[in-house]
């Protein structure tokens, strides 16, 4: 139902552009602030345009240990990457196998297994944060990548999406493949994986963002700076001193922290939208 | 439905990794929470003693818990309301445009990629008492802004940061919902004589109501859990507990004050709350089949 | 080329729903056997049990002398053509056809040769590099058959393979399947609900109803001597007229003035009389008098639906258009028809009575 209403069309674009500007403003200001020197920032209102200290600020973060942390931003970003990839790949891998078992096999307690996994769906790690810390500590996994990753994998969102996706594969395809002689692993490799490519990509985007942006759990599980992630390090820059925070560094760190997930979301927009609307339904 | 029914061992092998991880990192801690909620540890952490419902009574009787509860509820209402209204408006606009729709979608969804912690920092910078752009704008209106001192301003800060972040999530869903409404319905209404506004009120909105309900629950869950990071990077729950949500309090009691009994009881209450939300969500989703 | 034997083959679903009950069947080598019946009669379940896609609840399934009940589907030497073709969407036509051979670890050269042979046979050699979604319905159908042929199976299974094609293509593919079967000399078990397809394709026809076999025989034997009212109704188009026989003190009547005479056994037990529409002709002296309710012209012939006095069931006759035009018969007018073919008699259990009988008009003097 669209009519030619030039005025309304122009108003629509105007409002949308306004929305885009308002939503972009916080990141824009961080970007501009990160290119000024500390002194320039302290002299008044945050600048709306770029300064000349950008390279210096970013280089300082990437090459030198951050005060109060002792590791460079490079290390923090690398840790974030390991954690995000670990969560995305780990979660997809175990969920893929579990969903495959639930959809394509019949075995005793199948429904029970399904429900055991289902229960985890809506209860994030935050509700059981204290005992989870206890369990991870008992295994000696505090300050390890495994300890940062495993508790965040223990949830069913991916299993659910994949189960839905597998159940929508035509039954006759499965039967034809069996008549052609495909066993369980063959069928997984030759049919389920290639036919679920889009869903797996969508799931990867969502899980990567989820992993990269985690806060509370890595805050606890990564005690030492060697394992700290970019997201949890920001607090050190902003609230380390009683004096004015070094905003030129904080904003530069924020920009670097934001860059990888924003790049992923823009590059994989199609998968992102699909993944989001699928995982949550 | 035919399956690999002859394979008895394979499905267990396939399920083993997920079942093991869920058992160790979900059921074990959850059971621990449940158990701890009925015990009290002595001052030196050496022994513990069964106290029945005393932990729950203690939590329920403390004014701090109810303050956190009301902060959480207010926070949820503000974020859900604000983020959903904004998202609906922008989604309707984006659904209307013919040219550049994809570009608008990208430019309005990217904030989803930003960690709540970073969202908090970015807005704190905008509201910085000394050099914040918005602080200066507000000063022009005669408002003295310092979120460190004013409870209301502290809450406003985390609410705005959360709305900014959550809007893009709602936007994606509203846009998907709008695009799923069959054009024939709107055309039928137009032939019946309904103008654009009537069509929106009479057809679009009711058909979006399942999406809206779903988002209401998801926004509440977001406020419950994800805003921890926003708060911990900006207001630290203060001033005076004005921004201390249920999860923030749980964290403070468990890791700062080391009160295991109380934090476990809070964990259990939180699980019940989220369980109830999930249940309501599913009941509603079942009913919406009529659409 | 293989034989297939089912002995007391049964399928029971949870809740004691019996899809197939104690079914006995033998398919000879090189035979095309068509299983036909309404939906839910168990014909697909039978086919899927033979394929190994459905567990067998009871009885024996013997393929080429070996009990195959517990064999994996791929080890039974059967190939199946599915209703929706079930082509692998992410593979080219070549890979679709080669997949089973690849799993059997055949040498590359042999796979190439066999795929190309089958493709040539079906006239799809030009399509080998395409993906299924770029094929038309008829082409997909051919690829599905090609996939089966490549495996050189002992037994072909067809599950309503033509039901997704339009009418013209269906006729063409029907003939092609028949030609192919004769050329390969293959054993085929073919399931359909379309009786025309069944009649034209089958060496032998199996009519199923509620999990049991109603009748097995050549298409013509089923057409000429249906074992039950059910088969009579199912085989032949338009369907056979089935008219209840009325009993009176002086014997069996069709109408008041039309008596059933002949073998005393037959007249004593007949409950239903069957008349093929093709076996009625216009005759001013004919024994059947009725009124015309509707005329459906088909081209050369027309279907004339009449009503006999005292009967609710319509009587349908297939009459040449020319004769109809010459007679001046029109809707709502009177019509007289003569029986020009065999009468089929069925008892009160709807079973066939194999006795000769005829319709004898009573002199109007004795009219009641």
TrEMBL record, chain A:
<dbReference type="InterPro" id="IPR035906">
    <property type="entry name" value="MetI-like_sf"/>
</dbReference>
<dbReference type="Pfam" id="PF00528">
    <property type="entry name" value="BPD_transp_1"/>
</dbReference>
<comment type="subunit">
    <text>The complex is composed of two ATP-binding proteins (UgpC), two transmembrane proteins (UgpA and UgpE) and a solute-binding protein (UgpB).</text>
</comment>
<feature type="transmembrane region" description="Helical">
    <location>
        <begin position="191"/>
        <end position="212"/>
    </location>
</feature>
<dbReference type="InterPro" id="IPR000515">
    <property type="entry name" value="MetI-like"/>
</dbReference>
<comment type="function">
    <text>Part of the ABC transporter complex UgpBAEC involved in sn-glycerol-3-phosphate (G3P) import. Probably responsible for the translocation of the substrate across the membrane.</text>
</comment>
<keyword id="KW-0997">Cell inner membrane</keyword>
<keyword id="KW-1003">Cell membrane</keyword>
<feature type="domain" description="ABC transmembrane type-1">
    <location>
        <begin position="77"/>
        <end position="268"/>
    </location>
</feature>
<protein>
    <recommendedName>
        <fullName>sn-glycerol-3-phosphate transport system permease protein UgpE</fullName>
    </recommendedName>
</protein>
<keyword id="KW-0813">Transport</keyword>
<feature type="transmembrane region" description="Helical">
    <location>
        <begin position="112"/>
        <end position="130"/>
    </location>
</feature>
<comment type="similarity">
    <text>Belongs to the binding-protein-dependent transport system permease family.</text>
</comment>
<keyword id="KW-0812">Transmembrane</keyword>
<feature type="transmembrane region" description="Helical">
    <location>
        <begin position="81"/>
        <end position="105"/>
    </location>
</feature>
UniProtKB/TrEMBL annotation, chain B:
<dbReference type="InterPro" id="IPR035906">
    <property type="entry name" value="MetI-like_sf"/>
</dbReference>
<dbReference type="GO" id="GO:0055085">
    <property type="term" value="P:transmembrane transport"/>
</dbReference>
<feature type="transmembrane region" description="Helical">
    <location>
        <begin position="106"/>
        <end position="126"/>
    </location>
</feature>
<feature type="transmembrane region" description="Helical">
    <location>
        <begin position="171"/>
        <end position="191"/>
    </location>
</feature>
<feature type="transmembrane region" description="Helical">
    <location>
        <begin position="12"/>
        <end position="31"/>
    </location>
</feature>
<feature type="transmembrane region" description="Helical">
    <location>
        <begin position="203"/>
        <end position="225"/>
    </location>
</feature>
<feature type="transmembrane region" description="Helical">
    <location>
        <begin position="65"/>
        <end position="94"/>
    </location>
</feature>
<keyword id="KW-0813">Transport</keyword>
<comment type="subunit">
    <text>The complex is composed of two ATP-binding proteins (UgpC), two transmembrane proteins (UgpA and UgpE) and a solute-binding protein (UgpB).</text>
</comment>
<keyword id="KW-0472">Membrane</keyword>
<keyword id="KW-0812">Transmembrane</keyword>
<dbReference type="Pfam" id="PF00528">
    <property type="entry name" value="BPD_transp_1"/>
</dbReference>
<dbReference type="InterPro" id="IPR000515">
    <property type="entry name" value="MetI-like"/>
</dbReference>
<comment type="similarity">
    <text>Belongs to the binding-protein-dependent transport system permease family. UgpAE subfamily.</text>
</comment>
<keyword id="KW-0997">Cell inner membrane</keyword>
From TrEMBL, chain C:
<keyword id="KW-1003">Cell membrane</keyword>
<dbReference type="GO" id="GO:0001407">
    <property type="term" value="P:glycerophosphodiester transmembrane transport"/>
</dbReference>
<dbReference type="Pfam" id="PF08402">
    <property type="entry name" value="TOBE_2"/>
</dbReference>
<dbReference type="GO" id="GO:0140359">
    <property type="term" value="F:ABC-type transporter activity"/>
</dbReference>
<protein>
    <submittedName>
        <fullName>sn-glycerol-3-phosphate ABC transporter ATP-binding protein UgpC</fullName>
    </submittedName>
</protein>
<dbReference type="GO" id="GO:0008643">
    <property type="term" value="P:carbohydrate transport"/>
</dbReference>
<dbReference type="GO" id="GO:0005524">
    <property type="term" value="F:ATP binding"/>
</dbReference>
<dbReference type="InterPro" id="IPR015855">
    <property type="entry name" value="ABC_transpr_MalK-like"/>
</dbReference>
<dbReference type="GO" id="GO:0055052">
    <property type="term" value="C:ATP-binding cassette (ABC) transporter complex, substrate-binding subunit-containing"/>
</dbReference>
<keyword id="KW-0762">Sugar transport</keyword>
<keyword id="KW-0472">Membrane</keyword>
<keyword id="KW-0997">Cell inner membrane</keyword>
<keyword id="KW-0813">Transport</keyword>
<dbReference type="InterPro" id="IPR017871">
    <property type="entry name" value="ABC_transporter-like_CS"/>
</dbReference>
<dbReference type="InterPro" id="IPR027417">
    <property type="entry name" value="P-loop_NTPase"/>
</dbReference>
